Amino acid sequence: MSRKIGYARVSTEDQHLELQIDALRAAGVEERDIFMEKVTGAKKDRPELEKLLSYMKPGDAVIVWKLDRIGRSIKHLIELSELFKTSNIEFVSLKEKIDTSTATGRLMFNMLAALAEFEREMIIERTHAGLAAARSRGRQGGRPKKDEADIERAVKLYKSEAYSIADITEMTGVSKATLYRNVKQKEEMKA
């Protein structure tokens, strides 16, 4: 391990980080390498965690006091564990005694990764089953096709150079992406 990086979090302003910081120091994390924040775990926006993720380098170890300090949910923990694995970062949770530099820790880590893979496959299966059921009832997936007349009108307005893209999309209901794609197709057909 090249560096030990700590992450400590409490949910409210009246809670204290000292217990976690002491545990991280005892695990060998330098004060300058501890990222701390006071924010609820359910909140997606955690600036200090984002800084930690940008700061870490292959070979480092990310250390937390407990799993629930770093992960918002099981899904988020699994996402983080996958990120650590692909980035060659060791992960240590002191309270749960998970350390991916050990065989047991890697087993726990791999179990999390396997659960993530299983969850992704189940989502894909459910999506495919839902699409098949919709097709059997005569419905197609995806967005409804835009009226060709509206697209032609949007392209003409674009070529006139008299209107902004925002004006064209508002007048015709044609999205920017659809407009640009059709303008490009028409230019390619000319060439």
Given helix and strand content, the structural type is alpha/beta
Major beta sheet, specifics? Answer: 5 strands, mixed
Listing every helix as H and every strand as E from the N terminus to the C terminus, the arrangement reads EHEHEHHEEHHHH
Count of discrete domains: 2
Helix count equals: 8
Main-sheet strand order equals 2-1-3-4-5
| Span between termini | 57 Å
CATH homologous superfamily heading of the largest domain: Resolvase, N-terminal catalytic domain
| Low-pLDDT stretches | none
CATH architecture of the largest domain: 3-Layer(aba) Sandwich
Measured as a percent range, the helix fraction is 40-55%
Shape descriptor reads elongated
Mean pLDDT: 86
Taking all Cα atoms into account, the compactness measure Rg is: 25 Å
CATH class of the largest domain: Alpha Beta
Write down how many β-strands occur, each being a DSSP E stretch of 2 or more residues. Answer: 5
Portion in beta strands: 5-15%
Q: In words, what does this structure look like?
A:
With 191 residues, this protein is α/β, with parallel strands linked by helices. The chain has two domains: 4-115, Resolvase, N-terminal catalytic domain (Rossmann fold), CATH 3.40.50; 148-190, no CATH class. Helix content is 55%, strand content 12%. It has eight helices and five strands. The chain has helices at residues 18-26, 47-55, 67-70, 74-86, 103-136, 148-160, 165-172, 176-190; strands at 4-10, 34-38, 61-64, 90-93, 98-99. Strands 2-1-3-4-5 form a five-stranded mixed sheet, sandwiched between helices. Helix 4 (74-86) crosses helix 5, helix 6 runs antiparallel to helix 7 (165-172) and helix 6 (148-160) packs across helix 8.
